[in-house]
Specification:
signal, Jelly Rolls, alpha+beta, six-stranded antiparallel beta sheet, 2 helices
Length: 210
């Protein structure tokens, strides 16, 4: 056997051992990396605050909508009666936080809905009131779907019944405090995913409701 062959035969077991060790390390670390994506408290894609506002007849009436689901948590709510209902997602996981989404293309939403509803992008400086920029969230017929909603200005409008915003949609993107889902018809809703392009919400350990 040549010296080159002897060297190869000597180093091969070491290479195999090193590869096996590296693979074992990857397999061991993978679950930890996956679970670290969510927050320590209940969340959906790191969004911890999915809240029933008490506006409109809903089940639940107030407080968190998050409940255990097959793969983590879901935000579940039922709208009752023909009246405006309001549920809120705080983008920064606390009321006083805000995010600059001016460079974001939009967001992916995974949800079920038995009727159409709307989502408003509410800025910190104009949080209260119904006169907000919004886009339609179409019914899924109760099926779970994932849809992309663009932040292109021509995709957002306002409803005469709720009032015309006194600010531009572009300015709302720069100081986005929350996504507020509103609907005026009975609806059975479940949300299992929310990912905003270019934005990763911070986990807040003591996040409370307001």
């Amino acid at each position: 056997m040549t010296s080159r062959a002897l060297l190869a035969s000597a180093t091969m077991p070491k290479l195999i051992t090193a590869l096996v060790a590296a693979l074992a390390l990857v397999l061991t670390a993978a679950p930890a990396a996956a679970t670290s994506c969510e927050c320590a408290t209940p969340s959906i894609d790191r969004y911890q605050q999915w809240l029933a506002s008490g506006e409109g007849t809903t089940v639940p009436t107030t407080g968190s909508l998050l409940v255990p689901d097959d793969h983590g948590y879901a935000a579940r709510v039922t709208f009752l009666n023909a009246e405006w209902h309001v549920i809120v997602v705080w983008l920064g996981n606390q009321f006083d936080a805000q995010a600059d989404l001016s460079r974001s293309a939009g967001f992916w939403l995974t949800y079920r809905a038995t009727d159409d509803l709307y989502v408003q992008l509410r800025p910190a400086s104009h949080w209260s009131g119904g006169d907000k920029w919004l886009t339609r969230i179409p019914s899924t017929g109760g099926r779970l779907v994932s849809r992309f909603f663009s932040f292109a200005p021509d995709k957002w409008t306002w409803l005469p019944e709720l009032g015309q915003p006194a600010y531009s949609f572009a300015s709302a993107l720069t100081e986005a405090r929350g996504l507020v889902f509103v609907g005026k018809t009975p609806n059975v809703l479940a949300f299992t995913g929310l990912r905003v392009d270019g934005y990763r919400p911070p986990c807040v350990s003591d996040a409370g409701t307001r």
